[in-house]
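[Q] Does anyone have a clean structure-token version of this?
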Amino acid sequence: MKPLLPLLVAVGLAAGAVSASAHADDNWVLRFGAHVVDPKSDNGRLAGMKSRIDSDVKPSISLEYLITPNWGVDVLGALPFKHEVKLAGQKAATTKQLPPTLGINYHFLPNAEVSPFVGVGLNYTYFYDTKGRGLLEGARVKVDNSWGAAAHAGVDFKLSPKWLITADVRYIDIEGDVRVNGAKVGKAKVDPWVYGLSVGYRF
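[A] Here you go.
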């Protein structure tokens, strides 16, 4: 939990700061859905070989607090994503990661049936349970954790005053040094697009 502490503190400070400026009831939006983490096609070179990191989809949850009808602060979480890493087309490792993301969103038409939004934020990605496979079977493989910026855009489709459906996409800067048996062999440039669909409830 120690690596997540700075992000949790930031969430707490944000929530405390906005609570004093509550504008009405139903300021919170809780969303449940699923997100796909789709790393970019060129993931850099590791040990002189071209690397490729595959995609994964997992259930996700987000919580947004609306400071005003237009401005909101949100945090995104999900079950751990698992990725396979290939070197020169051959399986070399698997890794799991948790990418909680804190952001600020601007809702263009907050009272409309269809409300687009954009946002920016900060991501912390925690890599763990990284294991050598195939080419690196038996080797100790580690991916360093990552801090990076995030961009966010999406659309809310209002079903009722309480319920909505959200389709969104994020671009997240995720890059971590890769070490094999303690020696740095390069940097994993994940930099994924993250696509999501969720059902939201306002309260």
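[Q] Thanks! Anything notable?
[A] Residues 2-202 form a domain with the Porin fold (CATH 2.40.160.20).
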